Amino acid sequence: MLIISYNLRKHRAISELAALDERYSPDAICLQEVDTAGLAEDIGRMQLAHSTTGNRLGLAMYYRPDRLLPRDVRAFALKKSLHDRVLRPAHERLLAVRFDDLEHDRELTIASFHAAPLTALNSLRRAQINAALGELQLLGPNLPALMVGDYNYPVFKDNLAEKVREAGYELTLSDRYTYTRYRYFRGHFDFATSAGLDLRSIETLPRGESDHLPILVDAHYTGAEVEADIDVVI
Questions:
Q1: Is the dihedral of CA 22, 28, 33, 39 positive or negative?
Q2: By CB distance 3.0 to 4.6 Å, which of 95, 99, 129, 177 could disulfide with 59?
Q3: 176-191 per-position pLDDT tens digit
Q4: pTM surpassing 0.70?
């Protein structure tokens, strides 16, 4: 299963989605900083699952209807930073969809996540991530889950990975930096957090109009490759 995550930088990169669909044929596209007013219902072969409504620049998710069937959709407000309380840029920072995977006849949860900006402390972002993972379990108890997005966590990622493992998930970075807004400020901002899935690769895609680069996640159900190998041997 292929999933793209992309922070559009205040909707600037919205016109690139059709080309991403055409080139990479993802099963889902998770968006951050998208203008949720008047989003197209269809982009390429993708359909809009849902978008947040608590703020103009929010989250959205598109999916391939020949592969995925939405069963439950929820948006969640997470603990607010001072930046959120003063400027109110975002109310809902997690958008999660419980899907039927029509190809494999099983369920999974996919989520788009956007952590508080760098003006907040890492401790607050960790609290947001932990709360988000808890919400995924409530939406789809014990289901395979993938949460992708802008974690705004450029340093001390090993500590974050440890906390994520304690919650029963794995944190995975892409093969290259995902943020290059300033000439001398680059880093991994866009991650994938998963449970019940093996992430074969996470590729940072070419830069577009956003200061974030999209990432392409190649996810497989845990144990799927092993079963396939056994079948081949037999």
A1: positive
A2: 95
A3: 999 977 655 678 999 9
A4: yes
For residues 153 and 82, give the distance between their C-alpha atoms in angstroms, rounded to a whole number. Answer: 17
What local confidence, expressed as pLDDT, does residue 228 receive?
A: 38
Which residue(s) pair with 12 in the sheet?
none
CA 221, CA 63: separation in Å to the nearest integer? 18
Q: Which residues contact 147 (CB under 8 A, 6 or more apart)?
A: 94, 96, 110, 111, 112, 113, 132, 133, 136, 169, 192, 193, 194
Helices (H), the chain: 17-24, 82-87, 122-139, 157-166, 224-233
In angstroms, the CA 63 to CA 122 distance is 31
pLDDT in tens, 43-56: 999 999 999 987 77
Question: What is the rounded distance in angstroms from the CA atom of residue 167 to the CA atom of residue 194?
Answer: 11
